[in-house]
Design a protein that fits this description.
- The complex is a heterodimer of chains A (244) and B (391).
- Chain A is an alpha/beta fold.
- Chain A is 37% helix and 25% strand.
- Chain A has a single domain, classed as Rossmann fold (3-Layer(aba) Sandwich).
- Chain A has nine helices and ten strands.
- In chain A, helix 3 packs across helix 4.
- Chain A is globular.
- Chain A starts with a strand and ends in an 8-residue tail after the last helix.
- Chain B folds into two domains: 256 residues, no CATH class; 104 residues, D-Maltodextrin-Binding Protein, domain 2.
- The radius of gyration of chain B is 30 Å and the shape is elongated.
Chain lengths: 244, 391
């Protein structure tokens, strides 16, 4: 479970995140929806301890992300906005590197890697060097290495960005599987369709603030709109920076 | 497996697969110095030897006035050439190394027993002309002394009356120390090799990783950043250490390719020399690795890091140039200055003087202290929030 309390972060005069509150529960997919530049990536970076909030608190399974950064990172699987791979290593070697950084034994590491390779349907690329991988193959490898340590909480920053239709469907299937395993899945997106199709709970961010935090049904009821798309536009006030 | 060794082995393995890094660390870096050195030495030796042994032609103005002097020159392998109208210009335009001009009243003055003038026209700023000039000068002077002695004997005087003081040279230079004079730029090659051996790694592991956007995912792992830095530094040090060993091994073969016996110098680059050089260079390996990482962490991109590092590469030249232009007496504190200490120590080894333990100790202490500072600086940069954010 991830709890975010009154998070603030400014870069110079720009207030990127300006009082964000929400909770992402175990066994649910929580979507962070917002137009480009709304502060989604900055919020996630504070969640996975890369940036220090100016004010506010992040709790992961009840642990403070700043008092206990290393313990929190052990409980998080993160697909950051930057998903660079080591191009002179194979996909499997990329995955193993992160497993070793988590201090996993080689037995456990091998078992867990095979599970992920099957779950992500990447058997055919596992022993290829990642140079020249397609966007979809890169994302699969990046997700596998992020989840190698079997984390309870999964953070994905725009996971379907740049993927084709098939790869996007596979990714959504995989995210549902993670939820059904009882994990807390939090992902960000600027694509309304995607959030509508996947989420148990939707947190809408605009200009660094949470403007809605509801289940899809409650969002419809609250706005009086027939579709989620219309509901989002109503909440944010514009459809600029969003994609259907 | 600890995080440190995970980072270390991953970086070593990944970079062993990179041809550019390998070529720079194992081929160009270590071999560039020895090859330049051997070529330079051979060209220099052959030129000098050719000038000493070979007959040279020297233009002489007024040769017909002094047939005996001409015979003395010829006896020393210097052939008198036809004179030229404008010897000063000929020397300036490098058409002649040296021109001899005999005064028109030479014969008349000689017969009266007066002093006569023989002019040597040359350009002392032309180093390649110095050997012929010295040869001509020494022949003319010894001819003059011989004739002077004859005149004194003819007057019934001992020649020693005219030269009450004799200078006797007692040169304390050993054949080894003479060679050290020629090889004073050698320490620079060792430093350069260490620099080149780790350079691509240092750029790749910091600026490169950031540019390829893999630093952010790396930092999300539950590993303190200083451990990641330590693993990376160890990988850089490994590569530059291998480079250093290779270049020392290559230099040890140099005496086979240089005609040292013809130069009258001894070049002792044996195992003992190699081991001591490696020991002296140890702190520089860590210092340069940390400095390179620090500079790369400051740069925004791979190319920027490359530019900064090529400027940084100029710094190790400073002590070599300084010591060869301004020959200073080695003071004890100098051994504690990184680069300068190594330079002094290696030149001493080349001279065959040896380096006492306290000098080695000072050198290592000073070097490692500087390396520690640079490492701390790099660690500070690694902690910054900005470093991880690629975009």
């Amino acid at each position: 479970m991830i709890e975010v309390r009154d998070l603030h972060k400014a870069f110079g005069a720009v207030r990127a995140v300006n009082g964000v509150n929400f909770t992402a529960r175990d066994g649910e997919i929580t979507g962070l929806l917002g137009p480009n530049g709304a502060g989604k990536t900055t919020t996630l970076r504070m969640l996975y301890t890369l940036m220090r909030p100016d004010a506010g608190q992040v709790l992961v399974d009840g642990m403070d992300a700043y008092q206990d950064a290393l313990a929190v990172r052990r409980r998080l699987g993160v697909l950051p906005d930057a998903r660079g791979l080591y191009k002179r290593l194979t996909a499997a070697e990329n995955i193993d590197y992160f497993g070793r950084l988590h201090g996993m034994s080689s037995d456990l590491l091998a078992r867990r890697r095979e599970v992920l390779i099957d779950a992500l349907e990447m058997r055919d690329i596992a022993d290829r060097r990642t140079e020249g991988f397609s966007q979809g193959q890169r994302v699969k490898t990046a997700i596998a290495r992020a989840l190698i340590h079997d984390p309870r909480n999964v953070l994905l920053d725009e996971p379907t960005n740049g993927l084709d239709v098939m790869a996007t469907r596979a990714m959504r299937r995989f995210m549902r599987q993670l939820r059904d395993e009882g994990r807390c899945v939090l992902f960000s997106s600027h694509i309304m369709q995607e959030v509508a199709a996947l989420c148990d709970r939707i947190v809408v961010i605009a200009q660094g603030r949470v403007v809605a935090d509801e289940t899809p049904a409650a969002l419809l009821a609250q706005t009086g709109q027939a579709t989620l798309e219309d509901a989002f536009v109503t909440i944010i006030g514009t459809d600029e920076g969003l994609a259907a | 497996m600890s995080a440190f060794s995970a980072v270390y082995w991953k970086e070593v393995r990944e970079n062993l697969r990179d041809r550019r890094t390998l070529v720079s660390a194992l081929v160009t870096g270590p071999l560039l110095g020895p090859i330049i050195f051997i070529m330079l030495m051979n060209v220099m030796t052959n030129r000098e030897l050719a000038k000493v042994d070979r007959n040279i032609d020297v233009p002489v103005i007024g040769a017909e006035l002094a047939p005996n002097l001409m015979a003395a020159l010829k006896g020393a392998g210097i052939d008198a050439d036809a004179g030229m109208p404008d010897p000063e210009n000929a020397v300036r335009e490098q058409r002649a190394d040296v021109v001899v001009r005999i005064a028109p009243d030479y014969a008349k003055a000689w017969n009266k027993g007066q002093s006569v003038q023989v002019e040597l026209i040359y350009d002392s700023s032309r180093r390649d002309a110095s050997t012929p000039v010295a040869r001509v000068r020494s022949v003319v002077e010894s001819y003059g002394r011989r004739e002077g002695a004859m005149r004194l004997i003819a007057r019934g005087l001992s020649p020693t009356t005219a030269w009450p003081v004799q200078v006797a040279d007692r040169d304390q230079a050993t054949s080894q120390s003479r060679s050290a004079l020629m090889f004073s730029f050698l320490p620079y090659f060792f430093t350069l090799t260490v620099f080149l051996g780790g350079m691509y790694l240092a750029i790749d592991l910091t600026a490169g990783e950031r540019e390829r956007q893999s630093l952010e995912p790396l930092f999300v792992n539950p590993v303190a950043r200083w451990k990641i830095l330590a693993g990376k530094l160890a990988a850089i040090c490994t590569f530059s250490l291998v480079s250093l060993f290779l270049t020392i091994a290559a230099f040890m073969t140099a005496p086979w390719f240089i005609p040292t016996e013809k130069l009258g110098i001894a070049l002792d680059l044996g195992l003992r020399f190699g081991a001591q050089v490696a020991l002296l260079m140890l702190p520089l390996i860590l210092l340069l690795a940390a400095l390179q990482s620090l500079v790369s962490a400051l740069a925004k991109s791979y190319r920027e890091a490359q530019t900064y590092l090529s400027i940084l590469m100029m710094i190790p030249i400073v002590p070599s140039v300084l010591l060869s232009v301004v020959p200073v007496r080695a003071e004890p504190w100098m051994y504690a200055v990184p680069l300068l200490g190594q330079n002094l120590g290696i030149v001493q080894l080349l001279r065959g003087d040896g380096v006492p333990a306290w000098q080695i100790g000072t050198c290592l202490a000073g070097g490692f202290a500087a390396a520690l500072l640079a490492t701390l600086g790099a660690a500070m940069l690694y902690r910054s929030e900005r470093l991880a954010i690629s975009a």
